[in-house]
Amino acid sequence: MLFDTHVHLNADQFKDDIVTVIERAKDAGVHNMVVVGFDEITINRALELVEKYDWLYAAVGWHPVDAIDFNEQYLNWLEQLSSHPKVVALGEMGLDYYWDKSPKDVQKEVFRKQIQLAKKVKLPIIIHNREASEDIVTILKEENAQEVGGIMHCFSGSLETAKQCLQMNFHISFGGPVTFKNAKKPKEIAKQIPLDKLLIETDCPYLAPHPYRGKRNEPAYVKLVAEQIAELREMSVEELAKITTANAKKLFGIS
Predict the structure, then answer these.
(1) Share of the chain above pLDDT 70, in %
(2) Domain extent listing, the chain
(3) How far apart are CA 144 and CA 122, in angstroms?
(4) Distance CA 36, CA 43 (A)
């Protein structure tokens, strides 16, 4: 029983075979997924999916790359959507210093506003971090994000960053990159995260695990992430799946 905590089944890459992709996930033992919306189009698609499938859930938020397009109207919309029975988190949100579409000061402001909203509506947050660990940690601390906690999604930072996030009530989630042959740092960190704070994901259609690296990722492949981490931690895949599923359900308030 696997829980993929971060999928983008709302992406264009799945528009032609979404039903087949979802069936393959079920056949691989994936019992739950969180479909993450990060702008107006993907949020609406996420909601359509979770209303169609009772074992799918949604997260709604605004991606830092598109922070320049964010406004008060969207903030109010996110607040309204937070009461939707299938919305279990806000995000993905955060900072992305790799792409330069949105200025850093705009990204930070939009990030802070979403954290403040999460505290208001009492939902956990899903953090996108690309080359911005120091500023991410600073803002999480300043905004007292530990009140709601959440997920450091597709974690690629240092062990020190992971420890700081764990202290602030955040879970650490690993995706396909932990399976890459040259991924020494993610493998080392995956061995050290407390089991009650560990999650798994695909971030599909991106970052497909070995041996599908470079191809379209899909939720069924979360099993490969689970197998890799179970091997690193010298435990059974079944036990790892059980623990990470329980962690996700507790965080998202899913009974």
Answers:
(1) 100
(2) 2-252
(3) 13
(4) 7
Cα–Cα distance measured from residue 184 to residue 132, given in angstroms and rounded to the nearest whole number: 20
Taking each continuous run of H as one helix and of E as one strand, the counts in the chain are: 9, 8
Which residues of the chain carry a pLDDT beneath 50? none
pLDDT of residue 83: 98
CA distance 139 to 102: 17
Q: What is the pLDDT of residue 100?
A: 84
Strands (E), 110-222: 125-130, 150-152, 170-174, 198-200
Place of tokens 């956990």: 124
Sheet with 150-152: list strands edge to edge.
2-7, 30-37, 56-60, 87-96, 125-130, 150-152, 170-174, 198-200
**C-alpha span between 179 and 234 (Å, rounded):** 15
**pTM over 0.70, yes/no:** yes
CATH architecture of 2-252: Alpha-Beta Barrel (3.20)
| Cα 61 from chain centre | 11
pLDDT for 13-52, tens place per residue?
999 999 999 999 999 999 999 999 999 999 999 999 999 9
Amino acid letter, 113: K
Tell me how far apart the alpha carbons of residues 183 and 190 are, in angstroms, rounded to a whole number: 11
Q: Are 127 and 136 in contact (CB under 8 A)?
A: yes
